[in-house]
Amino acid sequence: MYRRLVAITVVILAGLVGLCLLGLHSLSLHAEGLRGRRLAEFAAVAEQIRADVKRKLDDFVRTEQARPYTDYQYYYVPMAANEEAALVRSPIGDRLDNGLAYGYFRIDPDGTIITPYVPLDAPDIADPEVRRYIQDDLQRRLRETLRGSDTFAFAPMRPAPPVSTDPTDLYERARPRPATPGLDAQPPAEAPTASKAAPKGSSRAEYRIGSLEETQQVQVVRQDRRMFEQNVMNRATRGDFPGGLMSQGGMGDEQTAAQRPSSYRYDEGVTMGRDPAGRAVGGSAQGTVDQRGRAALPGRQTQPVQAEYETGGLPPQQARPAGPQREVAERPGEPSATVSVRIEPFVPVSVPPADAAPFGYDVYLVRHVQIEQDHFVQGFRLNQEHLLAEVRDSADRLVRAGMDYRIAADEAALDGHVTHTAILDFGFGSLALGLLELDPGRLGRELAALRHGYLGVMALVSTATLLALGALWHNVRAQVVLARKKDDFISAVSHELRTPLTSIRMYTEMLEKGWVRTEDKRDEYYGHMRHETERLSRLIENVLDFSRIQRGRKQYRFRLGDVNACIRQAVTMMQPCARQAGFEIAADLAEVPSFSFDPDAVVQIVVNLLDNAIKYARQAADRTLHVRSRYEGPWVTIEIEDHGPGIPRRQRGRVFDAFYRVGDEACRETTGTGLGLALVKRFAQAHGGSVQILAARPRGAVLRVRLAARQPA
Predict the structure, then answer these.
(1) Whole domain around residue 680: which residue ranges?
(2) Which of 149, 233, 316, 458 is 20 to 30 Å apart from 375, CA to CA?
(3) Rounded mean pLDDT of 50-64?
(4) Is it the case that residue 197 has pLDDT exceeding 60?
């Protein structure tokens, strides 16, 4: 049995240890999952910020790409139905700052700088900010950067696409097209890519914002030649200062104006374009400006032709209402009535140094414009502070609860406690966006609470398991002990039954065969037979009473009576047995008032106590057994005192257990079943009392029984 119990215990403990280890591993995985989920939230916020910034930048690039090339001039001639065109002020000439764009400009191949901020007849630049921007930033820095640039080399004229003569087809291609869908309608240019290793507990990724590459397309515009001559070839609309403030050296110093195929010779009031052979490629564009600021510009007496856009939106000042295509009067040998305007996408140009700029250098977005043989570049400086403000605006709106952010030009400038570093790569520069946890210890506290809860549960489970195993072992051991006691009980009962039966049988045979000669002997033998019979009766009664008590079927008959009478009856019953064993019973019974008790139970209590004293005090020098009774308030006390060896203190609590007997069973000399004192305890408890063992003087034991002196209800 113990082997099986050991095996079961080992299996249960191994399962408990495995459960604890598995729980700790699961807790570790859960902690990693929580950290990963939080990092994923930061990465999702960074992606949302990237998408929002890209949407803004896409809208800005689309707007600037669709801006007409004439907006970069101080004056321009809009498309008009009458023959007399008015000079209109540029819509972007009011201020340098225009959102993400700062300071629009145009640079011709000869180095002339044209801006929408300075009129033609201005003797000087009054605005110091405009003067500083044109002279310092454009003339000294940007123009030097563009000098000799392969990107903006003025190539020969690209062939223009053929013009359809179908009015319907021309209208369909010329009408404005919807803007390119935003980020939500198209996949991102490039998914965030993790780069350099991030510190433990944090993450890092690069987010590509390719607005310049994705949003722009080459635009090819068909425009009436008169409008081209009036806006590009006419000096009044250019607003340049040849030889003055705005012209300080061309894109290539080694090439003169006369040698440049796309340059123009500017006479007073006349603008004429010529090819390398000296042939005129444009008509006279001489005109005067009246007191109202309008210019009367001569030209051919033909109706203007509607502008045709191959790609991009149609600028309002160059578009005509949809309608039938008007006829174009062309004479043999003359140039076409329309010109092809090719507008390239913006490309970034970095001009260092600029310590105050977030990128550490200025970024100019420049596009190449080609109109037949004429080439020039247009653009503006990117307002990096406004771009930084747009990033902050997106971050302010999109960061979630418990998050904060920092923005720096370089990743090294961020705080070391950044949880997720997002490198916003714009193609022309990058910003480091650091997302921070406002409460860095929150996740640790949650994990600690979870860990403590788990450890508490596991401690409870482990305690319950160990208690269950302890109870199992205790019960098994108790069952083993009980089985052993039952075996001892069966052996003792067999011996207790065999001894009196043998005596009765012996005396019966002696009387039956007439071996007894005298009456005294005959009476003595009869007395022995009666004594053994009573002994058998007590043994059987004890066994039956214990069985009834164990099954809960013992019934007590309480009635009012004299307890001393029951004690005397028991003494009388045990007197022959005591005398046969050489003992005398001395009764000292005090006056006890009547109370309710079970007479049979009281008699059996006294008999069992006297029988126990006779068995264990056989070697006593003083062979007197004292029986006492007294009344102590609500209690009635019955004491049996002997002068035998006594009961060891460590065994006094166990002698009232069923089947327990003092001494070793292997060398036991006393008889008994181990039920007598167990029944005494149960009978006393049934009367609301108790039983205890005291030491007698000078030696021996006193067994004291206390019964509650109850009155009948």
Answers:
(1) 556-713
(2) 316
(3) 93
(4) no
